[in-house]
Amino acid sequence: MQDSVMKAWWDSSHMAGGNTAYIEEMYEAYLEDPQSILENWKVIFDALPKVDGVEVESNHTQIKADFKHMASLGPAARFTPGAAATQGDVQSDERQVKVLQLINAYRFRGHQHANLDPLSLWIQPGVRDLELKHHNLSESDFGAMFNLGSYAVNADKMGLGDLFKSLNRTYCGSIGSEYMHITDTEQKRWLQQRIESVEAKPVIDRDEKINILKGLIAADGMEKYLGAKFTGAKRFSLEGGDALVPMLKGLITQAGAFGTKEVVIGMAHRGRLNILVNVLGKNPSVLFDEFAGKHDDTLGAGDVKYHAGFSSDFATPGGNVHLALAFNPSHLEIVNPVVMGSVRARLQRRHCEDGSAVLPITIHGDAAIAGQGVVQETFNMSQTRGFKVGGTVRIVINNQVGFTTSNIEDARSTQYCTDIAKMVQAPIFHVNADDPEAVMFVTKLALDYRNKFKRDVVIDLVCYRRHGHNEADEPSATQPLMYKKIKKHPVARQIYADQLIAEGTIEKHEVDKLMAEYRAALDHGACVVQEWRPMTEHSVDWSPYIGHDWDVEYDGSLTVEKMKELGNALINYPEKHRLQSRVNKLYLDRKAMVDGEKMLDWGMAENLAYATILADKTNIRITGQDSGRGTFFHRHAVLYNQEDGSAYLPLQNISADQGRIDIYDSVLSEEAVMAFEYGFATAEPSYLTIWEAQFGDFANGAQVVFDQFLSSGEAKWGRLCGLTMLLPHGYEGQGPEHSSARLERWLQMCADHNWQVCVPSTPAQVYNMLRRQAVRPMRRPLIVMSPKSLLRHPLAVSSIEELAAGVFYNVIDEVDELDPQHVKRVVMCSGKVYYDLLDQRRKNEKNDVAIVRLEQLYPFPQEEFKAIMAKYEHVTDWVWCQEEPQNQGAWYCSQHHIWQSIPPGSNLTYAGRKASASPAVGYVSVHNQQQKALVEDALTIN
């Protein structure tokens, strides 16, 4: 009897084979949202086979086979009889599923029908998934009640008509929400609850509305004032994106209430002057002086006003928050990783691991976020160990036009400029900038998401640009239709004021009064930000490093006993931590070095430098693509257990009260990582911060950072930075891309004592160079031409006593016992070629050629060089020898310094490769011939 009942149920059930298409649709809905389908279906799908405990979600062919197999079993199929539907319920179930699919369609694609463009110029293609008929529904179904599944309104059931209106309000109003690409169910549920429960439009009280209006009045008033006072002056006006001002103030206020202590902002040009005055509290009178061309002669080279940074404190309900707007050149998105690095340094200084104490905000242009590769690099770093900052709030000022590009298809290859953010599954909120209440809603939502999930979030502020690329540009030449519309379009302040007047929130005369008060404040020239406070929250002290130059005295010496103590700590690791065989041999050699049985090699000397710095309670940060072991297998500061892959850092276990050391193998990026480290070093002077290139020439991938920040940041902005760059350099026949770190480029940028360029040639030199960079109370960048083959060169060794002496020699005199009076030629050089010259001279038994090494090429050590040259005053034959081609290396940039130091009447000649467009040849045989020839040329007296 029971079997016959089951068979009858099965034969009539929608599980039968004729309904497989329906079953597939139901299963698709289940995959998208298991809670969106009826419980009896969920029980069935939950029971489907799993592979290694993981649900099989992609092989739909196999799913079909499973259902067909169930159908063939008939009553024996494993269904719950109590969950069976009768024939009369089948149509109702189908419609219910269609309704749930409609809800999911709006979650996935509602943003494509949202009212995002203030100018109403967007022509959005129709989305069939959002049409009732696509789901076999129609207006005739509007009166029917349906279960809402996980749709997060305050109801279990709703009429289809009301649901359809609710979905459109929630997903197709002034906000277009994209979050269904996120794979984490908890994050999606959280976002759905926040968005759907208020239909993307929460209740806002009068005080907040008035504050929003004040922000819009300030944004508009500032631009109008500047436009009238400095007509035609370039200012990169915010007009059209006015909502950014109340948006940022609301974001900072909410962050402070959450407990945030610092906010670091990075942005390009558009709206920067407005934000400086109306958010950070820069005195308008100071800005007006800058427009008038007044400046302080003590500020060095200076920079244009729309590159300027600024710092202040901002009052919030949770206490004062320190604000820092990063300096930024015209290279747009490059400031983003700089901001991340600065935030990471501030978080570590505050001992905050989750990112809650410091908030990064980056403001992008629509064309730039899609077009600049550093954006992708920065997104890619956002969740990595060495570079995470607890999530960034990213705001796009979406002008809908990049520079002068009028067609989206010319600006990018995707629908939205923000699609790049999907690579890290960041939620994206597109919002109409002319609806400031919607802007404030997504602002609060974005910050709450960031604080809860510690991940990036994007707000796409869809607006327009009232003027051209700058105020001297004529935009209608390339966008005639857009600018015809813009000329007639009211400003956001007017739109919102009219809205508040119409709803009775404020009277027109009150609006006029607020506008007049703001204008009067600008006339007065004092700070116009009520929340501005004098700075007390900034926690770093730069005073010990200010006012010092290269000749500042310091003591880098240590006793040999202390060196050996640190060396023993350095070679100690857990007994059960099994090393790889080559690494084990290296550590046995290091033990012999500490015991005095062997001279110290490069890797041991470098690690000892770090150990001594840590023992002084100074912190160290090292990043690079192979920084843990070193590209050339020399450093091995991180030891990997061959049994379980666990890592051990001897440098983290030097002593109980040592400094902190972080060593991270970075993502495969130069530009973003290098910019990150610059940002870190400019925010944290107490660290020895090091970035190591895999090969020196890879630094050209980060050239904008060297050009715009590192070489000129102090001259332009007064920003000190102690960042150290290790750039492997040396001609070993590895071809054009792995020989030269392009030394000539760094030397070309040398001026105003902006940085140091060093080419250390011994382990003692690298040890004392790193010690000097950390111990000396001066913070300027250090560019190092670090070695490759020298890392294991038999002559490139040092004694522990040489290290302990604590002296870096900018110039090193001849090391063999030559009689200076018998010297007829002096060869000067830097780097690896020294050992080729020394070896060949010894083989030739030439005692009339002295070899002098320049270990620091800039600032040129004139006095030390002259002191050494004094013993060769009788010599008139002077030679500069280098491995690099004549138009590269140090020859052209340094010879004028050498001319000033050699005796009058002397002749200075060049020995090296001839000029070349390529850094090096590609054939080893040709390389060897060239190397032999340049060495012979340098040593042969004519």
TrEMBL record:
Family membership = Belongs to the alpha-ketoglutarate dehydrogenase family.
Q: Which NCBIfam families match?
A: 2oxo_dh_E1, PRK09404.1, PRK12270.1
Q: What is its EC number?
A: 1.2.4.2
- Presence of keyword Coiled coil: no
The name this protein carries in UniProt is 2-oxoglutarate dehydrogenase E1 component
Q: Which Pfam families match?
A: 2-oxogl_dehyd_N, E1_dh, OxoGdeHyase_C, Transket_pyr
The cofactor required is: thiamine diphosphate
- GO biological process annotations for this chain's record? tricarboxylic acid cycle
- Give UniProt keywords alphabetically: Oxidoreductase, Thiamine pyrophosphate
Report the residue ranges that make up the Transketolase-like pyrimidine-binding domain in this protein: 600-793
UniProt cross-references to InterPro entries, sorted A to Z: 2-oxogl_dehyd_N (IPR032106), 2oxoglutarate_DH_E1 (IPR011603), DH_E1 (IPR001017), KGD_C_sf (IPR042179), ODO-1/KGD_C (IPR031717), THDP-binding (IPR029061), Transketolase-like_Pyr-bd (IPR005475)
A GO molecular function for this record? oxoglutarate dehydrogenase (succinyl-transferring) activity
Which GO cellular component terms, listed alphabetically, does the Swiss-Prot or TrEMBL entry include?
cytosol; oxoglutarate dehydrogenase complex
Q: What phylogenetic lineage does the species belong to?
A: Bacteria, Pseudomonadati, Pseudomonadota, Gammaproteobacteria, Alteromonadales
Per the record's keyword annotation, is RNA-binding included, yes or no? no
**Function description:** E1 component of the 2-oxoglutarate dehydrogenase (OGDH) complex which catalyzes the decarboxylation of 2-oxoglutarate, the first step in the conversion of 2-oxoglutarate to succinyl-CoA and CO(2).
